Amino acid sequence: MQQPHWTRRDLLKALGLGAVALSVPARAAGTSKRPNIILIMSDDMGFSDLGCYGGEIHTPSLDGLAASGLRFTQFYNTARCCPTRASLMTGLYPHQAGVGHMMEDRGFPAYRGDLNGNCVTIAEALRSVGYRAYMTGKWHVTRYTDKDGPKHNWPLQRGFERFYGTITGAGNFYDPATLCRDNTYVTPANDPEYKPATYYYTDAISDNACRYIREHHAQSPEKPFFLYMAFTAAHWPMHALEKDIAKYKGKYDQGYDPCRAERFERLKKLGLIREDWELSPQAGDWGNVEHKEWEVRCMEVYAAMIDAMDQGIGRVVAELKKQGTLDNTLIFFLQDNGGCAEGMGRAANVNAKWVDEFANPGPMGPDDLQPKSSPPMRTRDGRPVRGGPTTMPGPADTYIAYGRNWANVSNTPFREYKHWVHEGGISTPLICHWPAGIKSRGTLCHDPGHLIDIMATCVDVSGADYPTERQGQKVQPMEGMSLAAAFQGASPRERPIFWEHEGNRAIRQGEWKLVSKHPGGWELYDLDADRTEMHDLASKNSDKVQELKTLWEGWAERCGVQPWPLKKG
Ligand SMILES: [Ca+2]
Prior knowledge:
The protein is of the alpha/beta class. It has 14 helices and 17 strands.
């Protein structure tokens, strides 16, 4: 399926008007019932990992949703776990929700590491029209993780009726820290409600989601539901089941280059990128890799983690079919940030601290909560967790990231990684599937969109009244625009989109993007001509730099963005 060369200018011309938001009925024509909404997000994945985004990883469930749904080619997250989740849940920029950085209280209102009182979650917003809300997976929008501490920003206090997942980020997939059912911490060993033969967090997220769907249809079939599934795949550590890893044996033996080249060609063939964009520079030199077998294994496990997630999404889709509600369920899939270049567990000497110096107190009892989300730590049966290039990743007693060079493959064809706001850090697939409400199926939408648009879309298609007040406090207005126009094949209104994370800054308006990698200066790119950000036009177009810089500064001031590194607030 070869897509025609496209530019935003061409599309606007074709529509004959420039950009006007079309009026779209709040609910799908021909259906009186409000749609169920399932929002699925994965963790630390690159733009081209999924099959339907050019990847070689086996993702038939997501590919199937893409084939009968709509794929966005220029959708954006905020480059990091916590700010993305805060923005996604509230429809605000992360700083406006109080999560400008991660989960520490940095003193400034925009950096409290905890959702503030002036925002609502999608679950809270949809309550006005009778939705029941469920969540499985990673929450990561509150700094309060103590089991006896404040829980005002845990899922059940933020609009969800049931929750199974983790309050913090990262952790061992076989024994996640802060594992929680509703408001109570549990362990894989003592949870009476989930007893699989082998505990694996990705499966647990999918299985509990299927259960909530089943129970919803049994208990309140007349009501619509909102389900938020936040997978921790494929965030480090590289943990996957052997049956899934085995499928990728041999797939990555030739190293980074062929994999990147194949993805680049498939991206073009699928129409996801333009033929004339250049491929960003290669990060790693396979010839110089010392531990090739280990490096290959890292990517095999990464692929297996995504494969397992896709299998779980397949089970969720099957459950919806069984309940007869797939047609009027709007399913979103997206990723929270780009491929991750962090070096967790990759240094040759990590085991000196993780094993040799770690006082290992033996096995844990079934009720002992896993106290650690990263090493030094032990498995539930008392083995110290290991890393480094002599440890093959995958099992519970390993803790290793796949590293910068594979992240560069994941982010093909873009530059940079998680943390940065060049296209490799902030570009995500967005798959929307809704047979009753999406006219254009199997097609691509090239309009830029951002996480903030998900709240606006949920409010729009559900007919909800976005709250102006929550617990006596004023709620900030939504920042995003509904994607419902795009569901009908129309182009949404043009608007600027902004980023700031750890001093990395960007603004996108139309084809123009002004971006800076902290502590460097501004770079300017024409993304219609050069989305891989290879040709900096800043010195040739200082008027455009000034215009966009002024817009960015106005946004930063309005949202409480502080200079990086943060001073004490
Ligand atoms: Ca992440």
